[in-house]
Design brief:
The structure is a homodimer of 290-residue chains.
Chain A: E1 6-10, H1 16-25, E2 29-33, H2 37-47, E3 50-51, H3 55-59, E4 64-67, H4 72-79, H5 85-88, E5 94-97, H6 103-114, E6 119-122, E7 125-126, H7 128-133, E8 137-142, H8 145-155, E9 159-166, H9 170-198, H10 203-210, H11 218-228, H12 238-255, H13 260-274
Parallel strand pairs in A: 1-2, 1-4, 2-3, 4-5, 5-6, 8-9
Antiparallel strand pairs in A: 7-8
Helix pairs in contact in A: 9-11, 9-12, 9-13, 12-13
Chain lengths: 290, 290
């Protein structure tokens, strides 16, 4: 872990709130900002530190500025403009974006930050709300090695595996690979479990048996039973997964990758949304198969 | 493990040959039969026991008759007819089919066997050639509990997890769920790895990082690196996977299960076959994405 430094955390959602908390717990001087100010007030009441009125104010004087918001446009609104983070950041500071966003945005931000001597790291995370709370996120980072070396000890406050994947955008591209691998995997699991039901098998016994072999997956072990139980009020929401898959499919248009099953599963998630399941966990892909 | 008994093993392919070997190594009196007699001669030279000229001859006097052949028609040709296994089996003996075949065939064989007082278990395996060789197969069994209780201690010679899944056909149906879960999962992994390549990422580093989280799977851990290396001359052949998926898709027509991604992946395997990859490992799904 690092020497205590002055940091800012922008965006106190289900991920950012506990991540910023880990920074404070490790002794860093944390200034927070959130679009809805009440959350920042609550955070300071719990963790100490300071709440700022604008992203710029929070970023002023910080060696590292972290943000974790919703999508590309949210990131732009927090970073750019008179009240944006970049306006407050000093030469030599580092901007770290934990939002899952496009690789294009990462390259754009790296270029914009460089103009004022600020380094940029795209650093999307996986591990979900639980990973943020227990400080065990996987963090996939794109950017320059020197900035990564300075930021990593601070990210270790909430990261279990913090890895530099390549230049600006490489963190986002790695997160896309992660989501692509998950989308088709969850659909395959859903088809298998639904088939087991139609076949009259004891679905949980089937999962118990086949999870010992080549069909095993984290999703089977952690979402199989809840899929059988038709329970989806937890986990990673379908609306967010569709946002991520949209980024993957756009990037694939650009780099020429073929994603036939990923594209199809994105459509199945649209069916889940149509069933009212936008906030359900991604394992709700089994719903349209019922 | 069981008291030594007299058993027969019919079909000495890449799976049956080592499975029968484990029976001999555990002290059972094994009579083998194989369509190509030379393999049976070689097996006896290695393991002792007896080679029979016909399936009927091998089955005569055996308490348990195991078979492991190619497909439904192969099973019928070994079990039925004047030289078939059933003609030699005594009242009270048990016929155990380790072939991955249809659930309909399992029900048909159970009925045919019952006419002569023979019990039938459908018992497809997973774990591949390596699992057969080291005696650590997962065995999914359909049939009556009494026959299962008698056969299980003998199957434990080569099974790590031998589970009764339900009545005749339930073993085959469980194996189908296994293959359904694998098909879409491997395609998703292939799309992810191919995307990583098009995105200019270090594919092995990506796999190392994302295999710690929600995208993790046995396939990612055991086939990811070889997919990156474009190596497919091992493992479970595409031709056999297509046979298994054909069984899954037929059964789904009957029970009403929806298998959109499984059906699509079956078509991608047809593309791999068209590329000359019928004998390649199932992870060759990445080939048409190149």
């Amino acid at each position: 872990m690092s020497e205590p430094v002055r940091v800012a955390f922008l965006g106190l959602g289900v991920m950012g709130y506990p991540m910023a908390g880990h920074l404070a717990a490790h002794g860093h001087q944390v200034t927070v900002w959130n679009r809805t100010a009440a959350k920042a007030t609550a955070w300071v009441a719990q963790h100490g530190g300071t709440a700022a009125a604008t992203a710029r104010e929070a970023a002023t004087g910080a060696a590292l500025v972290f943000l974790c918001v919703g999508n590309d446009d949210d990131v732009r609104s927090v970073v750019y403009g008179a009240d944006g983070a970049l306006a407050g950041m000093a030469d030599g500071a580092i901007l770290v974006d934990h939002t899952t966003a496009s690789a294009d945005l990462a390259r754009e931000l790296a270029a914009a930050a460089a103009k004022t001597g600020v380094a940029f790291l795209d650093a999307p995370v996986s591990g979900g709300q639980a990973g943020a709370q227990n400080g065990k996120l996987t963090i996939m980072v794109g950017g320059e090695a020197e900035a990564f070396a300075r930021a990593k000890p601070v990210m270790d406050c909430y990261g279990r595996a913090v890895t530099l994947m390549g230049p600006a955008g490489a963190g986002q591209l790695t997160k896309m690979v992660n989501q692509i691998c998950i989308a088709g995997l969850v659909q395959a699991l859903a088809e298998g479990i639904a088939f087991a039901g139609k076949a009259g098998l004891d679905q949980k016994l089937v999962l118990d048996v086949i999870s010992k072999g080549a069909a095993q997956s984290w999703q089977m072990e952690n979402r199989g039973t809840t899929m059988v139980d038709d329970t989806f009020n937890f986990g990673f929401a379908v609306d967010w997964m569709r946002k991520d898959l949209s980024i993957c499919l756009s990037e694939a248009r650009r780099n020429g990758a073929k994603l036939p099953v990923t594209a199809l599963v994105d459509q199945f998630y649209a069916q889940v949304q149509a069933l009212g399941g936008g906030r359900w966990d991604t394992s709700s892909l089994i719903k349209p198969l019922g």
